[in-house]
Amino acid sequence: MDAAAPLGIDPLLDDPKTRIVVCCGSGGVGKTTTAAALGLRAAERGRKVVVLTIDPARRLAQSMGIDSLDNTPRRVKDVEGDGELHAMMLDMKRTFDEIVEAHADPERSRAILSNPFYQSLSAGFAGTQEYMAMEKLGQLRARDEWDLIVVDTPPSRSALDFLDAPKRLGSFLDGKFIRLLMAPAKMGGRAGMKFLNVGMSMMTGTLGKLLGGQLLRDVQTFVAAMDTMFGGFRTRADATYRLLQAPGTAFLVVAAPERDALREAAYFVERLAADSMPLAGLVLNRVHGSGAARLSAERALAAAEHLDEDRGGEDRGEGRGENLVDGRIVDQGSGKAEDRGTGGSSPEAPSPTGSEDGVSVDRLTAGLLRLHAERMQVLAREQRTRDRFTALHPEVPVAEVAALPGDVHDLAGLRAIGERLAAQEETAGAL
Question: pTM for the whole thing?
Answer without folding.
Answer: 0.75
